[in-house]
Amino acid sequence: MKRVEIKLNISAVAPLLDIIKQAADDLRGQLAIRATFPEHDEEFNETWTAELLAGQNSDVRELLGLFGSEFFAEGSIAIDSRNSDSLLRGCSALRIQILSHWLQGIPTDLLEEEDVPPEAIADAVRVPFAAYTFLDQVQKIILEHLDPLAAEA
Q: pTM score, two decimals?
């Protein structure tokens, strides 16, 4: 089993975790992306939505679990091939929530740019932008070093 350990600056990541946790709280009762169903069966749609929500909440909890007491003691998180898929989904849900809650006015090209100068982002949204970017980097590390699709091939 492959494993990646990421060493992080605790004081830099702590404010980002506040935003990430708030986004996670916001998602507890709603999907990051509204589900649409071809069926007009209300009971089926409610059941399916509940299952999607339970999965999303599990993925987000898995991600937040990386930032427990061990992280604050050692400053590192460990990701392995067992949790990489869940972490990718959790990061995606949180990024969507951060985007829709805090970053609506930021142009797409800035959101996807690797080296955005701090002055390009308004003071009021710098921390949410950094949280969004941080989650993006976690996803890139997972995809680069753990390649979740390799197990399927």
A: 0.92
